[in-house]
Design goal:
The protein is of the alpha+beta class. The chain has a domain at 131-301: Glucose Permease (Domain IIA) (Distorted Sandwich), CATH 2.70.70.10. It is 42% helix and 17% strand. The protein has five helices and ten strands. The strands form two sheets. Strands 1, 2, 4, 5, 6, 7, 9 and 10 form an eight-stranded antiparallel sheet that branches. It has a two-stranded antiparallel sheet with strand order 3-8. It is rod-shaped.
């Protein structure tokens, strides 16, 4: 009963409270902002962060900005002075510097690279042979000079002073001469002996029997000892004369020398296999050995 008696009294309050809640709820529903999608909310957050970040430097710059700017300016100025001043000191402006375009315009073909080079003309003898013909000619000249030098060396090595009183030219005349001014007798012939032995004193002069060219001149002629061989052309015939057992050191001509008829070529001795001093003379006509004395008797003037 108490509940029944009390309920009319409290009902208005409850109803008022209920209406209050409903009205507040209705207002809150009408005043609640619309719900934003995810991308819009994210953009809003980013804008807020950016705004806060922008406000923070402004607050700090009021105290630290001037000091930092001064330090930065000092560092930059120091770096500039360190790099620029030495570079400027090392750089020197070139006088009359020209660009490639100016060189091309003014005539690049006349550009002088080294101004201290002087004009010069090569003389013909100031450079060596370069063409094949010149090289061959030069080699031939060098070979001829070498042969001449060797010939002179051999001649000087085989030439000795002629004793006083020795005739330099054989007596007589004609294209064929006798090799000795005289002789005592002929050597006795023996088996295997090739040539004619003219018995005569040591040192008697020996002469070339005709004009010719020396083909051999040696101190080591084997059994003939000191020997000279000469080739002649007599009346169209090839004649070879050989002179053996000569005196050491008496040869006056070397191989390759040209001699004339009656020219002194050495002296008599007994070198090699010889019995007594004498001249061993051999004569070959067109390659055939002939009796030396018989040939001389028929041809010597």
């Amino acid at each position: 009963m108490a509940e029944e008696n009390d309920s009319p009294v409290s009902a208005p309050d409850a109803q008022v409270a209920s209406r209050d809640r409903r009205g507040r709820s209705a207002r809150s529903e009408t005043q609640k902002p619309p719900r934003l999608d995810r991308s819009t909310r994210r953009a809003t957050k980013l804008e807020r962060r950016a705004a806060r970040a922008e406000r923070a430097p402004k607050t700090q710059s009021g105290r630290r900005g001037p000091v930092r700017s001064i330090l930065t300016l000092a560092v930059v100025t120091g770096l500039f002075a360190t790099v620029a001043i030495p570079a400027y000191a090392a750089w020197q402006p070139e006088a009359d510097a020209m660009t490639l375009q100016q060189l091309a315009t003014d005539g690049a073909q006349t550009l002088v690279v080294a101004s201290d080079i002087t004009d010069s003309t090569l003389a013909r003898g100031s450079y060596s042979a370069t063409t094949p013909d010149e090289i061959s000619k030069k080699k031939a000249e060098e070979a001829a000079a070498a042969r001449a030098k060797a010939k002179a060396t051999r001649a000087s090595a085989s030439s000795y002073a002629i004793p006083a009183g020795v005739p330099l030219v054989a007596p007589g005349s004609g294209i064929v001469r006798r090799p000795l001014p005289y002789f005592n007798n002929f050597g006795a012939p023996y088996a295997g002996h090739r040539g004619t032995d003219y018995m005569v004193e040591r040192g008697t002069p020996i002469y070339s029997v005709a004009d010719g060219v020396v083909t051999a001149s040696t101190d080591g002629g084997g059994g003939l000892g000191v020997t000279i061989t000469i080739m002649h052309n007599i009346n169209g015939h090839a004649v070879q004369s050989v002179y053996g057992h000569m005196l050491p050191g008496s040869r006056t001509v070397g191989a390759g020398a040209t001699v004339s008829a009656g020219q002194l070529i050495g002296q008599v001795s007994d070198t090699g296999l010889a019995f007594g001093t004498h001249l061993h003379l051999m004569i070959h006509v067109d390659g055939t050995r002939v009796d030396a004395e018989g040939w001389l008797a028929a041809n010597a003037g």
